From TrEMBL:
PROSITE patterns: HTH_DEOR_1, HTH_DEOR_2. The keyword Transcription applies. InterPro entries: Carb_Metab_HTH_regulators (IPR050313), DeoR-like_C (IPR014036), DeoR_HTH (IPR001034), NagB/RpiA_transferase-like (IPR037171), Tscrpt_reg_HTH_DeoR_CS (IPR018356), WH-like_DNA-bd_sf (IPR036388), WH_DNA-bd_sf (IPR036390). Residues 3-58 form the HTH deoR-type domain. SMART domains: DeoRC, HTH_DEOR. It comes from the Bacteria. The keyword Protein transport does not apply. PANTHER family: AGA OPERON TRANSCRIPTIONAL REPRESSOR-RELATED, HTH-TYPE TRANSCRIPTIONAL REGULATOR SRLR-RELATED. Transmembrane segments: none annotated. This is DeoR family transcriptional regulator. The lineage of its organism: Bacteria, Bacillati, Bacillota, Limnochordia, Limnochordales.
Length: 263
């Protein structure tokens, strides 16, 4: 087998599995572990894989944690549309948890029901709601993540473990019907899971580009939340797969928002 052909087979395995081990590839390809390591090193230099201890993974699964200022400029019309649909689900007198992130921030901005009790782990969301009449606001506490302004860690998780709310709106960096909900780093997982447990109804708010994608850290199976709120730009097969699993999928009309804002 030529080196180029072997490297291509290695790359195919990395992309199909997401993560591979040197020993497994060595057995499957009938070559030495040293040869596999050399192939992985070559592929890494080409930017096609990322080596790990004993193997490699697909770097496309490592969604970067994007600073809030950059996040806010991505798909802004979709995020506003999603936020309005999410806010319409909230009724006067309810309690809710708002996760960190630019899409959930738009839901906070669109909230009209009063009175409300709101818990958030997002400093920007907290500032948005702090002076709103009829809103009782709590922050979870925890360590502040620079540039994204979210609160994470054991203090945030402990706060959420001690409450029960009507609704939780969560952000995510990937939603795959079969593999689950994903975020950018492991530190976020415990806090997001605590939000899901604290809520009677929980919804994931994501722009259409994140549907059908994966990330580095798995949060939960999709069936652990009640629904997904996205837009009419979402890929139809993914929407159908989510609904087949029993999720409520709400599609905001992003195209309508874009046209309205243009005028």
């Amino acid at each position: 087998m030529l080196a180029a052909e072997r490297r291509n087979r290695v790359l195919v395995q990395v992309r199909s599995r997401g993560k591979v081990q040197v020993n497994e590839l060595s057995r499957e390809l009938g070559v030495s572990a040293m040869t596999v390591r050399r192939d992985l090193a070559w592929l890494e230099r080409s930017g096609l894989v990322q080596r790990t201890h004993g193997g490699a993974l697909d770097p496309r699964l490592l969604a970067e944690e994007v600073p809030l200022r950059r996040k806010s400029t991505r798909h802004p019309d979709e995020k506003r549309a999603i936020g309005r649909v999410a806010a319409s689900l909230v009724e006067a007198g309810q309690t809710l948890v708002l996760d960190a992130g630019s899409t959930v921030l738009e839901a906070a901005r669109a909230l009209e029901a009063r009175p409300l009790t709101v818990v958030t782990n997002d400093l920007v969301t907290a500032l948005e709601l702090a002076d709103r009449p009829g809103v009782t606001l709590y922050c979870t506490g925890g360590q502040v993540r620079p540039q994204v302004y979210s609160l994470q860690g054991s203090h945030a998780e402990a706060f959420l473990t001690g409450i029960q709310v009507h609704v939780a709106f969560l952000g995510a960096d990937g939603v795959d019907p079969d593999l689950g909900l994903f975020t950018t780093n492991l530190e976020k997982v415990a806090v997001k899971r605590a939000m899901i447990r604290a809520a009677t109804r929980s919804y994931v708010l994501v722009d259409a580009a994140k549907l059908g994608t994966k990330g580095f850290a798995r949060v939960a199976a999709v069936t652990e939340v009640m629904g997904v709120i996205t837009t009419d730009r979402a890929p139809a097969p993914v929407v159908e797969a989510l609904r087949e699993k029993g999720l409520e999928v709400l599609l905001a009309r992003a195209s309508q928002v874009r046209e309205g804002e243009a005028g």
